[in-house]
Structures are given as structure tokens and as C-alpha cells.
Amino acid sequence: MHPFMWIATLSYLLLVLGLILRKNRPLHARLMIAAIVSDLITVLILEIQRDAIKTALSFTLSVLQQTHILFSSLATLLYFPALILGLILYFSNKPALIQKWRPIHIKIGYTAFIFRSLGFGMMFTLLWK
């Protein structure tokens, strides 16, 4: 397994742990931030080292590998609103604001997690290249 896959696995485990421990807000926030940041840094490194976007857009990979890219890209895009809303909720002490934005944060967060889970599973198709 490639080192980037180990990092992705660690990031994914942090996401899972963050979801399990979501009732502990400070720990949930730290775990999710660590997972998201490590995922984003990995994507950035892959882009710099391997021109990942160009490779993805060349459509030279298999359908399964392209599916990995699609799901992982959707998760990455959803990380941003989930992270922003999560930080707003974490630092807010206004019940009306929390009541308004928390359900949206949860929906975006779970959707990102589903896409990340699918992308994570499909990541192993990259070993078949």
C-alpha cells in the first residue's frame, strides 16, 4: 500500500472517530479538523507531485478509479461548508444561530462522510493499476 493510502486511512479513521464522539464537542471538532486538514493536505501534495487533476481529467484511469476520484472530490468540496458551519457552531453561544445552522451542518457533514466512505473504499482500486 502506498504511503498516501496509509495517510488516507488514518484520516478516514479520524473521521469515523469524530462521528462516534460527536457528543463531545471539543473532541469532535479536533478530530474532524485533523481529518479534514490531513485529507486536504494529501490532495494538495498529490496535485503538486503527480498533477492529479490533469490525470483525473485525462480519463486514462479505469471506471472504478474515476469513481474514486469523483466520490473523493465531492467529499472534499463538502468539507469546506461543513468545516465553516462547524466552526461557527462551535464558537457560537447564540441558541437561535445554533438551531438554524446545526441541521444544515449535520446534513452536509453526513453527506461528505458518505462520499468520503465511498471514495475511501474505491481508493483501493488504485492498487490495480
Quick description:
This protein has five helices and no strands. It is mostly helical and 129 residues long. Helix 1 packs antiparallel against helix 2, helix 1 runs antiparallel to helix 5 and helix 2 packs across helix 4.
Give a written overview of the molecule.
- The structure is a single chain.
- This protein is mostly helical.
- 84% of the residues lie in helices and 0% in strands.
- It is elongated.
- The two termini are 12 Å apart.
- The mean pLDDT is 93.
- Rg to the nearest angstrom? 16 Å
Helix content: over 70%
- Written as H for each helix and E for each strand, in order along the chain, the element string is HHHHH
Q: What share of the residues does DSSP label as strand, in percent?
A: under 5%
Distance between the termini: 12 Å
Broad shape: elongated
How many helices?
A: 5
The counted number of beta strands is 0
Mean pLDDT: 93
Unreliable runs: none
Structural class, from helix and strand content?
mainly alpha
Give a quick account of the main beta sheet: strands, pairing sense, barrel closure: none
